[in-house]
Amino acid sequence: MVDDNVGSEPERDIEMEELREELARLKEALSDRMQEARELVSERATLVRENPATFSAALVLGGVIGLMLGLAMSGDSRHKRWW
């Protein structure tokens, strides 16, 4: 069974080559982005390693602020809940 809508074999070969080239460019771009991400994570990890008390304090402060916001939002309801 030959599909007439597919086109000739040389056209398909050209299209396949273009797709391979595009795939190679995408792989290279992804590789570059992954390298940037690794460097950023490494910088952040070094920062946390050098300043564990500051990181812990910021984490606790963020948790307290989140808890306070959650309590404020839950206490603002106009109806009573059954639970």
UniProtKB/TrEMBL annotation:
Residue runs in coiled coils: 16-43
Membrane-spanning ranges: 53-73
Keyword field: Coiled coil, Membrane, Transmembrane, Transmembrane helix
Transmembrane helix is among the record's keywords: yes
Domain of life, per lineage: Bacteria
Descriptive protein name: DUF3618 domain-containing protein
Species assigned in the record: Mesorhizobium denitrificans
